[in-house]
Amino acid sequence: MFNLLTAEKIKLLRSKKVWIVLGLFVIIPIYQALESKSSSLKQVLETVVNGATGILMMEKNGFAILLIVSAFISFFIGEEFQNGTIRNVLSLGRSRTQYYLTKLAVASLLAVVGILIMTALGIVTYTSLHGFGEVAGIHDYFSYAFKAFGTLLLLILANVSIYVMISFQSKSSAVSLIWSFLYTIATGFGAGIFLQTEHFKFITFWFTEAFLFYSDFANPAEISLYPRMVLVSLLTIVISSTIGILLFKRTDIK
Amino acid sequence: MPETILKATNISKKYGKHNALHKVSIEIKRGMIYGLIGENGAGKSTFMRTVMGLITIDEGEIELFGETGITGLQRARRKMGQSIETPALYPDLTARENLRVQAANGGVSEREIDSLLRLMNLSHTGKKRTKNFSLGMRQRLAIACALVTNPEFLILDEPTNGLDPSGIVEMREIIQRLVTERGMTVLLSSHLLDELSQVATHYGILHDGKLIKELSQDELTNETRQYIELETSEVQTAVVVLNELGIRDYEVINGMEINIFERLDDVALINRSLVLAGVNVMRIGASRQKLEDYFLQLTEGSRHV
After folding, report:
1. A238, A249, A81, A222: which is closest to A157 by C-alpha?
2. Which of A3, A17, A88 to mutate to test the interface with B (most CBs of B within 10 A)?
3. What is the pLDDT of residue B303?
4. Rounded CA gap, A240 and A249, in Å?
5. Same structural domain for residues B163 and B187?
6. What is the model's pLDDT at position A103?
7. Cβ contacts of residue A100 below 8 Å, gap of 6+?
8. Which residues does chain B have within 8 Å of residue A95's beta carbon, measured at their own beta carbons?
9. Cβ–Cβ under 8 Å, residues B51 and B64
């Protein structure tokens, strides 16, 4: 797998898409901070109001992050099928599980790097404009920040895992883009529909987007939900990767 | 006895109700250039993909370098290189970077890259991205990628597809050099028997997913018989003259042509006899049955079985 990761490194360093994605992760927090300069911010509405709440940049930009990451993954994996370059690897006797896990690892790594950049820049820019401040009701900030960041990151990585599965099944950048977008919309915004019902309400919170879009991570009352979010994220990663690998092993490569 | 590199036994693959491959058995020994020939859709690429492990088979067994089973075949495939159909390259990378990626995939060092670029006449490409390469350059680079892991067995699917005549000659020379200089075994495909005949040592003819004939270069030469081609406006009189000369193995093609399959050294005698009998000989000379005609004869024959 180390060999495959080395090959990915050569490709990624020359990939414009990687730099575009990282560029977006740089621009978004700076733009949002500058936009917030002249207004008085309310935490419930804006999520990030100062340097301390900058740790929640992932919550504030959940939808944007998912769209950016899903688009990158669709191209990153879809093009291997479209260019036929996947044949070069698999015909060398590399196991499909290794290949799948390499792609998952690289996609996750890029998402983590992007999110770290976005969060760090969010904290710095909001601190410089609004001061570091505090998260209301939180006494041990570092413990809170670690838990909130870790939980949000896992929620995003669970989606990365789903997008990787979709891309391996779609075998085309365009088709993968469409399905990933539909999945994000359906499980994110569609979850609101289930929330309105009494009997199906529980289904909502088995989808990671529901937590991303409908939870307030700065609300001390919701911190107790973090373990459940972590569980759902880990289950999503394990189940989607297992299904993805099993299906990929049965896929004929044209 | 040369080592068996590939032994495919009764390979079958179905797509829905269509038999892409039906009980295909092929054995390739070390040093062979095995040409797989068939029309488009005959199953050539499907067979190659099964060997490379890119598609699953419904029936049969594949043995590579004496290895079978999932793990054994994975190990054996490290000794193989391939270029199947269109050149599989990263369009935004240079030739060197494409080779570096494939070297990393194979877990081999990059020291062969310079010599491969020279071998494939790509040293001058520098920072040019492969998306700006001509088809011939991309074909050559795809083969270089296949070679960067030092394979012993090379699979090339229609390597001359889309190339101009000089590119075809160049590709043929490269394949022959790989066999003579590096001792490789090659499996290559084409839908043109004439083209394959200039490089292959053994042939397998696929038709509708079935292997309808296997033959060596010598056997192919024997099968594509030589004959005397005679063109005349008086076919009936010419036939009488041929009968008088004791010639029985001939074929009247149309109202103007006769192909004579015996007494190939007697062209002058036949010509003189025809002229003396008042036959207007428009053209006469030794010829060889065209390979494409032979191929069509085989595939048409199998269609009527």
Report:
1. A238
2. A88
3. 54
4. 14
5. yes
6. 96
7. A164, A168, A241, A244, A245, A248
8. 74
9. yes
Q: Is the dihedral of CA A8, A9, A14, A19 positive or negative?
A: positive
The stretches in chain B having pLDDT less than 50 are 304-305
CA–CA min distance B1, chain A (Å): 27
CATH number at residue B131: 3.40.50.300
Q: Contact A3/B107, CB-based, under 8 Å?
A: yes
Tracing tokens 């404009």 back to the chain, one arrives at: A129
B261 residue type, one letter: F
Question: How do strand B250-252 and strand B59-64 relate by DSSP bridges?
Answer: unpaired
Residue of B nearest to A90 (CA): B54
Is the domain of B117 the same as that of B251? no
pLDDT at B305: 44
Contacts of B52 in chain A (CB under 8 A): 87, 90-91
CB atoms B56 and A89 under 8 Å: no
Interface test with A, best of B18, B85, B97, B101 (most A CBs within 10 A): B101
B86 and B172, same structural domain? Answer: yes
Tally of helices (H runs) and strands (E runs) in chain A: 13, 0
The beta-carbon neighbor of A11 closest among B77, B78, B90 is B90
Same domain, B14 and B151: yes
What number is the ipTM of this complex? 0.84
Residues paired with B34 in a beta bridge: B187, B202
A98-B78-B94-B83 Cα dihedral, nearest 10 degrees = -110
The closest alpha carbon to B113, from A14, A47, B59, B125, belongs to B125
A13 touches chain B (CB under 8 A): no
Q: Give, for all 254 residues of chain A, the pLDDT tens digit.
A: 788 999 999 999 888 999 999 999 999 999 988 888 777 767 667 778 888 888 889 988 989 999 999 999 999 999 999 999 999 999 888 889 999 999 999 999 999 999 999 999 999 999 998 888 888 888 888 998 999 999 999 999 999 999 999 999 999 999 999 999 999 988 887 777 777 787 777 777 788 888 888 888 888 778 888 898 999 999 999 999 999 999 999 888 88
B235 with B161, same domain: the answer is no
Residue B223: which residues within 8 A CB-CB, separation 6 or more? B215, B294
Answer yes or no: do B146 and B235 share one domain: no
User: A-chain residues within 8 Å CB-CB of B100?
Assistant: 10
Single-letter amino acid code for the residue at B29: K
Let me know if residue B162 belongs to a domain. Answer: yes
Whether B42 and B94 map to the same domain: the answer is yes
**What residues make up the domain containing B240?**
226-288
Q: Does A90 contact chain B (CB < 8 Å)? A: yes
Kindly determine whether residue A11 and residue B100, on different chains, have CB atoms separated by under 8 Å: no
User: Please, are residues A4 and A102 in contact by the beta-carbon 8 Å criterion?
Assistant: yes
Q: Tokens 């414009």 identify what position?
A: A16
